[in-house]
Structure to design on (345 residues):
């Protein structure tokens, strides 16, 4: 989809946009089930990167307690509990710039992945930058999906992160795709971006080939000590619009209503589900911040008559469409861009 097409959708009257998005959602996901995913931070804080929203960056004084890589047994305790609670996907995050094959910590991660994969859940990891060999090893260990967000537009990204580039993120996504792992790639709202930045993100993601398997939409949880700590809350109806646009931009993907749900009413979340969100993080904690109580989520889903998805440990990565033409990721570098062009994902 192009930015012009996305802008036209975004500018529709609210109910017209919702109606369009809901129709696509119903056609793609006729059972209307919601996927429950559990997150666990397996290595917390002390990250070398300077992402302006993140409490885990070592550059900011966030008073977050750092935690070295968890032991396999502890991760397995959390993974079993997640499975027992009804989650079908276990997502493990590590606050690293990236991982390198042959290192002790990467071997430890591979061992953790093998353990969790034995539970017949979808296994998602987010470890930062990956090379082709590391991606392949993760796949062989049992990773089904890799989360690597682009977060915002290519133009706004350098205002938020300077320690790595948009192109670095795209390269990792490419390596993940080529290893046959499903890509989970989305963004974060509330980081001083414009509506155009939000839609540019969707433009880039909607041109991935293969399409991402899931698109998380996070809203900033302002973290004391970070440069964005005082940013205002995102307007809930703007989140609903973004979910609807994500549903229309990437019809086959699960759209995950991610960080920021504690600041949304049940009614706002209901609109998000109607607009096409079909996955949530489930359990009281995200990586370092709060998430709604599981009991509240169960109650909301029950009130709405929404069923939850069954596990699919055989999750297959979406295949590239050979008929689709090569499309550069940001076709016309805008006035704000650094002029770089990237290979097509
Ligand atoms: N270090 C890895 C990386 O950068 O890809 C993985 C972890 S990082 C915490 C994953 C995503 O969480 C970010 O890309 C961002 O979208 C989201 N995130 C991080 N901090 C957040 C915050 N304070 N509020 C909302 N979302 C946040
Ligand atoms: C994603 O897009 N959101 C999740 C997951 N992928 C790794 C992380 C949200 C983190 C929220 C802030 C925190 O808990 O530190
Ligand atoms: Fe590090 Fe990821 Fe946080 Fe950036 S978002 S500081 S890479 S943990």
């Amino acid at each position: 989809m192009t930015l012009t097409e996305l802008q036209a959708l975004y500018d529709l009257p609210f109910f017209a946009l919702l109606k369009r998005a809901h129709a696509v959602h119903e056609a793609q996901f006729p059972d209307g089930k919601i996927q429950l995913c559990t997150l666990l931070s397996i290595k917390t804080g002390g990250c070398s990167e300077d992402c302006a929203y993140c409490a885990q960056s070592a550059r900011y004084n966030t008073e977050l307690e750092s935690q070295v890589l968890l032991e396999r047994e502890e991760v397995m305790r959390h993974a079993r509990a997640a499975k027992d609670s009804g989650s079908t996907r276990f997502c493990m995050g590590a606050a690293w710039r990236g991982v390198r094959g042959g290192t002790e910590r990467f071997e430890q991660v591979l061992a953790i992945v093998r353990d969790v994969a034995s539970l017949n859940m979808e296994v998602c990891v987010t470890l930062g930058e990956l090379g082709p060999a590391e991606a392949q090893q993760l796949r062989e260990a049992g990773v089904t999906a890799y989360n690597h967000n682009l977060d915002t537009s290519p133009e706004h990204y350098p205002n938020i992160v300077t320690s790595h580039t948009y192109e670095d993120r795209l390269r990792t996504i490419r390596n993940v795709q080529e290893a046959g792992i499903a890509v989970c790639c989305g963004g974060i709202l509330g980081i001083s971006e414009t509506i155009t930045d939000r839609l540019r993100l969707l433009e880039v993601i909607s041109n991935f080939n293969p399409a991402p398997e899931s698109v998380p939409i996070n809203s900033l949880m302002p973290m004391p000590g970070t440069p964005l700590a005082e940013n205002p809350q995102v307007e809930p109806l703007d989140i609903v619009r973004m979910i609807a646009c994500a549903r229309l931009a990437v019809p086959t993907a699960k759209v995950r209503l991610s960080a920021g749900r504690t600041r949304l009413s049940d009614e706002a979340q209901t609109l998000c589900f109607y607009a096409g969100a079909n996955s949530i993080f489930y359990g009281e904690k995200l990586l370092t911040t709060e998430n709604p109580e599981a009991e509240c989520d169960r109650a909301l889903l029950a009130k709405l008559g929404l069923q939850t998805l069954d596990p699919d440990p055989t999750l297959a990565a979406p295949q590239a469409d050979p008929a689709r033409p090569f499309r550069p990721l940001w076709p016309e570098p805008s006035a704000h861009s650094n002029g770089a062009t990237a290979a097509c994902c």
